[in-house]
Amino acid sequence: MAAAAALRCCFPGSAIGSGFVRSSSSRRGRSAAAVAAPSREADPAASLGDRTRVDFPILHQEFDGAKLVYFDNGATSQKPFSVMKTLDEYYRSYNSNVHRGIHALSAKATDAYEGARRKVASFVNAADSREIVFTRNATEAINLVAYSWGLSNIKQGDEIVLTVAEHHSAIVPWQFVSQKTGATLKYVGLTKEEVPDIEQLKALLSNKTKIVVVHHVSNVLGSMLPIEDIVTWSKRVGAKVLVDACQSVPHMPVDVQKLGADFLVASSHKMCGPTGVGFMHSTFEMLSSMEPFLGGGEMIADVFKDKSTYAEPPSRFEAGTPAIGETIGLGAAIDYLSCIGMEQIHEYEKELGTYLYESLLSVPNVRIYGPAPSQTDHRAPLCSFNIENVHPTDIAEILDLQHGVAIRSGHHCAQILHRTLGINASARASLHFYNTKDEVDVFIHGLKATVDFLTSEH
Known about the structure:
Layout: H1 3-10, E1 25-27, E2 30-34, H2 48-52, E3 61-63, E4 66-67, E5 69-70, H3 81-94, H4 104-123, E6 132-135, H5 138-153, E7 159-163, H6 168-181, E8 184-188, H7 198-204, E9 209-215, H8 227-236, E10 240-244, H9 256-259, E11 263-267, E12 278-281, H10 284-288, E13 300-303, E14 308-310, H11 324-340, H12 342-360, E15 366-368, E16 382-387, H13 392-403, E17 405-406, E18 408-410, H14 415-420, E19 426-430, H15 437-455
Parallel strand pairs: 5-17, 7-8, 7-9, 9-10, 10-11
Antiparallel strand pairs: 1-2, 2-3, 3-4, 6-12, 11-12, 13-14, 15-16, 16-19, 18-19
InterPro entries: Aminotrans_V_dom, Cys_dSase_SufS, PyrdxlP-dep_Trfase, PyrdxlP-dep_Trfase_major, PyrdxlP-dep_Trfase_small
Cofactor: pyridoxal 5'-phosphate
Keywords: Pyridoxal phosphate, Transferase
């Protein structure tokens, strides 16, 4: 399908004027107003960012005359009108519990909920929709693996291999497992290019290794790990592999069968979907071998006074009433992303990310962490950086207040990585397909002005 035709199927009309972004708000004395987006058909010669941003109502705000530039997509993505419409339709038209009722509302909600599961399975090329377990987020999915698989399969003397670049959600659950079982945590360090040392990882693997826990794409460094190789090496010693794919699934094609990891997790809110829902992929055979993580309704087959029997996966791991509307909204987000095409998104973001990196180099005394685009086959569209003698929180605060640019500052839930880099915090600009080079220019202009302001005598 041609790009322009694909976008027409995704964006039949402007999201603005629909009633979803009518109110104004204030933050620290600033007024924020919705601005009407053009309702004309997208120019096929325009960039993907220019063609898609019309469908994101939040991006059309102004703060004191400055258009919002949202560069905090590594934390959460914005939502297209189609996702909002899907949520609104669910709560207006067929709000009901799933899997339990025999009435029409429950049947429709169940069909939509399970339809979302099938969409997720197709999106990551799972062999069977029963291999997709819905959770509250990726953090809960990792905890599910740690408690349901880890506590049953890891014992004193065993080893768990991680990298120093992991998100806290991929570290802390395994610290719990280590404390409960007596297993040892082994950490892979960084190379001089500031990427996890794959040769060290390979050397750490032994018959003591029970699981390797790694990110697919780093939320700080922007680098990508060779998951297929890691899986191959791990299988040779009988170890399982868990992949945190939160920063890859929203930005590039991900094929779980090709990667071959035993567990892969991701979060809806980073892929243009609602908050409150994430998912885990594992094989049906693996899931069937695991004990439940939480107990309650839906995850049982039969309940007796002294014991219960459990449902088959994925129900076994989905106790209680799920986030029904949000899960259906995730299905709508996948429809949206699939309509554009993940390969097209990946190629555009690769170009945009390189433009961001090279533009940042024009800022005096800047230090960008992670590999340069020329040093790697893949660098995510994000840059974590510091400016000499300027605190990253001051940078983020002034960019927000004076220039309408939203970026991140802090340790990005990666304190071990920041300590390894010899810093306490960094600023991070992270992009998505609805961002543009013009916005990068606004960011760089604002950053230079901010640095001048913070370093000048006044």
